[in-house]
Amino acid sequence: MDDVKRLFREWRVDLEERFEALNARIEARFERRDPNEIFRALPAPSDALSVPMKAVMASRHSERSFSNEPLPDPVLADILWAADGVRDIEDAQKRTKGRVGREYDGGRTTPTSFDWRETEIYVLKANGIWRWVPERRGLLFCALTDIRHLAAYMQPAMTLPPVQLVYVSNLAKTRTRVSEIAEQLMMKFDGEVWNDEAIEELRIRNTHLNVGVKLEAVSLAAEALGLASVARTLFPTKKLEEALHLGPDEHVTAVQSVGYKAKSFLDHIR
Ligand SMILES: Cc1cc2nc3c(=O)[nH]c(=O)nc-3n(C[C@H](O)[C@H](O)[C@H](O)COP(=O)(O)O)c2cc1C
């Protein structure tokens, strides 16, 4: 028993040191606040989303006929909040007041395995590439290039939507303290089932599922707002990843087009 306790203590110290170093690197890379950054704050989610759930679920569908009219910020804000928004910080803080541990940050509108929150949503628009920052409720400007056409393949009509959401799975964010401790324990106590390969397969599977959840949330929100939307996995992955300057740990898992429904053929002129 003492041996097991000692082993746990050693693991903890070792893991904590490694995680602290890793966290510092991740923070430096993803959470830095550049004083010259261009940040477009978006409004809070609107009451337009307060619609009967049953009706929305019953009418949700993929729609591929889009108007190229840009989406106004409040509409985009509703969509992005549904995809990965901060739930309700004030309510959460009230519920967790006085609890020991880090202050609860409100949680997200869509769940992720181990609460990784590893999916980064890039927003491709005519006025450039942006990245959604849930905790700051806004868009961080990345580049002044319109690469919406790179989110389509063999479907010319899919170059037309005013907004292409690109779901990037960032594997660096899945190597958190909690999940690595869980993985160590799984391998230690159930080594026949869990080896490095099986753990990696589970990690990738979870990142795909986490994106799938977001696809459905956006699909429902788009339906509630009367918008057209379609989830897609058919796009030139490598070209898109290069255009987004993704690192080796970042992969495009899916794309979702969102926009107003086309009203006439004139809507299709770009
Ligand atoms: C993971 C996933 C990938 C998809 N990929 C594409 C795609 O590349 N192109 C496309 O036009 N539709 C794509 N779709 C949309 C499906 O074709 C559509 O959901 C299906 O035909 C059912 O139609 P519904 O969404 O209206 O119920 C995808 C859907 C999902 C969930």
UniProtKB/TrEMBL annotation:
Domain Nitroreductase residue range list: 58-260
GO terms, molecular function: oxidoreductase activity
SUPFAM superfamilies recorded: FMN-dependent nitroreductase-like
Pfam family, one: Nitroreductase
InterPro entries referenced in this protein's UniProt entry, alphabetically: Bacteriocin_Proc_Enz (IPR052544), Nitroreductase (IPR029479), Nitroreductase-like (IPR000415)
The organism's place on the tree of life at top rank: Bacteria
PANTHER family noted in UniProt: NITROREDUCTASE MJ1384-RELATED
Protein name, UniProt field: Nitroreductase domain-containing protein
